[in-house]
Design brief:
The protein is built from 16 helices and 14 strands. By secondary structure, the protein is α/β, with parallel strands linked by helices. The strands form two sheets. A seven-stranded parallel beta sheet has the order 3-4-2-5-6-1-7, with helices on both faces. A seven-stranded parallel beta sheet has the order 10-11-9-12-13-8-14, with helices on both faces. It binds adenosine monophosphate. Adenosine monophosphate (AMP) binds next to helix 3.
């Protein structure tokens, strides 16, 4: 199927061609016709499937067909609600790209940054608004964001939105829009609470499911290291020194963990940055930019901060902490080995995480290769191989402290 078959008009087709897309992805093929027919939809699709364009393109097409003449009189007719600032910004970039050859205007509003520039743009008039829930409600309260003319409402990453506690905000936003609007709900997974939300606000929705996220690419070399929790940092340094090269994304469960690892890697001379919930918006954007432009080659992130962000084509992913949700594993490592490239995924499993390995392996139906010859085995019967390089040795080298002093020390993890 081609984009032309999807009944998209010339200005949109031209922008798509210039972006470099040859043909629609599966989720686009399935979703675009329903959206153009003004149906409500529930789409279960992960980031990376092309889901953003699957709502952005038909929304632009629908709005294009009845464009307002003047800038000033523009009313917000499409609203996209996104749980995180980064995602909102990314969606905004997509809309800007695809609308290059139209007069449709879009903008992004999100918290953690000054309201004034956002207010100025809204006052000038936009057709499409991409927003995080809190800032949207703020600006609505101030009569800056008028939702009386919304024709299409998109709830993106609905499962994350609910996980982050936005349920009441989302319901409120839905009520503030017109009754007749079309609703498009996108979610990586459809747990009960998303289903419940859909039942209360969607009208006879079409359901679209894309690529159940249980399979991992054959091009990813997956390996597993069993390691005591206290030695994970040493193992990470060992793997970085001896095994991995290129651009690397490291996942940690908590923002505290991200910060600790970042400090250690910087002390050891690595070019590192991080994204997590405690960082200001500007710092998070700067970190992403530095990573994408290769100023730093290691990015450390929590799942929530990295969710949906377009960081692909990685050489390796390190699961410093294993995720307790097996789909998250698939999602994390899916960021490497894109477009026929090869990639590597390294997972560090401590004693308390063994069950996670079990559920991950059940999901992906693969027995992950266990690397035994490393200096920090979990099972003491396995003889450790002492890392001999003196030049690159760090203060974290095994043997620096006695076992007794290690035990006494209060660990941050
Ligand atoms: P998304 O799932 O929306 O985050 O999109 C993931 C990536 O796929 C983004 O980098 C998009 O630019 C890209 N993409 C979206 N649609 C297509 C397409 N039809 N062909 C090639 N790449 C695409």
């Amino acid at each position: 199927m081609s984009f032309k078959d999807l009944q998209l008009n010339k200005p949109i087709l031209r922008a798509i061609a210039e972006t470099g897309y040859d043909e629609p992805t599966l989720v686009q093929e399935k979703t675009i016709p329903f959206v153009l027919n003004k149906k409500d939809v529930i789409v279960s699709a992960q980031t990376g499937t092309g889901k953003t364009a699957s709502f952005a393109l038909p929304i632009l097409q629908l709005l294009f067909d009845k464009q307002d003449a003047s800038k000033k009189g523009k009313k917000i007719r499409a609203l996209i609600v996104s749980p995180t600032r980064e995602l909102a910004i990314q969606i905004g970039e997509n809309f800007k790209n695809y609308s290059t050859y139209t007069n449709l205007r879009s903008t992004v509003i999100y918290g953690g940054t000054s309201m004034e520039p956002q207010i100025d743009i809204l006052k000038k008039g936009v057709d499409i608004l991409i927003a995080t829930p809190g800032r949207l409600l703020d600006l609505h309260k101030q009569d800056i964001a008028n939702l009386d003319y919304i024709e299409t409402l998109v709830l993106d990453e609905a499962d994350l939105m609910l996980d982050m506690g936005f349920i009441d905000d989302v319901k409120k936003i839905e009520r503030l829009c017109t009754k007749e609007k079309q609703i498009l709900l996108f979610s990586a997974t459809i747990p009960y609470k998303v289903e419940q939300l859909a039942n209360t606000i969607l009208k006879a929705p079409e359901r679209i499911e894309v690529a159940p996220n249980s399979s991992t690419s054959k091009n990813i070399n997956q390996t597993l290291y069993y390691v005591p929790k206290r030695n994970k940092i040493e193992l990470c340094l060992h793997v970085l020194r001896n095994t991995i090269k290129g651009s690397i994304l490291i996942f940690r469960r908590t923002k505290f963990g991200v910060q600790k690892l970042e400090q250690t890697l910087i002390k050891n001379g690595y070019r590192v940055d991080s994204i997590h919930g405690d960082k200001s918006q500007n710092l998070r954007q700067a970190a992403l930019k530095d990573f994408k432009s290769n100023n730093v080659n290691i990015l450390i992130a929590t799942d929530v901060a990295a969710r949906g962000i377009d960081i692909n084509n990685l050489d390796a992913v390190i699961n410093f902490d294993l995720p307790n949700v097996p789909e998250t594993y698939v999602h994390r490592i899916g960021r490497t080995a894109r477009a026929g490239n090869t990639g590597a995924a390294y997972s560090f499993c401590s004693a308390d995480e063994k069950n996670y390995v079990k559920t991950i392996q059940q999901l992906i139906q693969i027995q992950i290769d266990v690397i035994k010859d490393h200096p920090y085995p979990l099972d003491p019967k396995e003889k450790p191989i002492i890392h001999k390089s003196k030049k690159t040795g760090s203060k974290y080298k095994k043997g620096r402290k006695s076992e007794a002093s290690k035990k006494k020390k209060k660990r941050w993890y």
